[in-house]
Amino acid sequence: MPFNQYPYKLPPLPYAYNALEPYIDAETMHYHHDKHFQTYIDNLNSFLKPYPTLQKLTLYELLKNPELIPIKDRTKILNNAGGVYNHYLFFDGLTPPSSSPNRPEGILEEMIGNTFGSFEQFKKIFIQECSDVFGSGWGCLVINNNKKLDIVQLKNQETVLEKNLIPIILFDVWEHAYYLKYKNRRGDYLENIWNVIKYPVINLPK
Ligand code: MN
Fold first, then answer.
1. Ligand 1 center to residue 137 CA distance, Å?
2. Which of 47, 122, 171, 206 is the most exposed place for a label (fewest CB within 10 A)?
3. Predicted pLDDT at 158
4. Are strands 137-143 and 149-155 parallel, antiparallel or unpaired?
5. Which of 204, 110, 118 shows the shortest CA–CA distance to 166?
6. Ligand 1 midpoint to CA 167 (Å)
7. For residue 20, how far is its CA from the centre of ligand 1 (angstroms)?
8. H-type helices in 1-159, by residue range?
């Protein structure tokens, strides 16, 4: 991950703000990327200011070693470090829609079929997990310690790093991710976002 050390900088969006329309609108992208994501970056920099030793850590190291952060500032540093990590993955994991159906291929397709029965069945379960996130959080398809696919919910700005999981697909289900366009209809957002998901290519070490 680039931009992963203090002072953190907002990574540019890897596509145009309106590139995900009609599924995610340009106004939402401007607020989400330029305001919300920027705020996590600014807060993280400001909370790390008094800690030169923490500034030397990468974002990964910071999130994986919370015990290095003094207790009195631990929660606010982790919340914002998590916000930076999650939003980097989220925006990087989206891609403009194409005319062909957007589906996983190769090893990922095979793993989804083996684990959930079919891609359609996986989508249903994943959408349900995301709908069930109470309040603010994330839904994430991960590879777990047994090299199997699993779906986890993350509260607020928890990350999969703390749980030693590898993120594959990450959906932001905070209201700021969809409210301008979808209002209270989280379900419609969760149906539409599949059109702009960038499925990673998976290479599992033998
Ligand atoms: Mn967000």
1. 9
2. 206
3. 97
4. antiparallel
5. 204
6. 16
7. 16
8. 26-29, 38-48, 52-55, 59-64, 71-92, 106-116, 119-131
Q: What percent of the chain has pLDDT over 70?
A: 98
Given a cut of 80, whether residue 205 has pLDDT beyond it is no
Task: Report the C-alpha gap between 189 and 206 in whole angstroms.
Answer: 37
- The SS3 assignment for 60 reads helix
CA 57 and chain centroid, separation: 21
pLDDT attached to residue 98: 93
The residue whose two tokens read 């939003």 is 87
Instruction: List, for residues 64-79, the tens digit of each pLDDT value.
Output: 999 999 999 999 999 9
For tokens 């991950």, the residue is 1
Q: Which amino acid is at 73?
A: D
Tokens of 166: 């590898």
For the range 14-23, what are the long-range contacts, defined as Cβ-Cβ under 8 Å and sequence gap of 24 or more? Answer: 14/91, 14/92, 15/94, 15/95, 15/96, 19/96, 20/94, 20/96, 20/97, 20/196, 23/97, 23/192, 23/193, 23/195, 23/196
| Residue whose structure tokens are 């993280």 | 44
**Cα 161 to ligand 1 centre (Å):** 17
Whether 58 contacts 5, CB under 8 Å: yes
The token pair at 149 is 């696919």
User: For residue 121, which amino acid is it?
Assistant: Q
CA gap 184, 190 in Å, rounded:
12
Helices 119-131 & 106-116, crossing angle to 10 degrees?
70
Cα–Cα distance between 147 and 205 in angstroms, integer?
A: 10
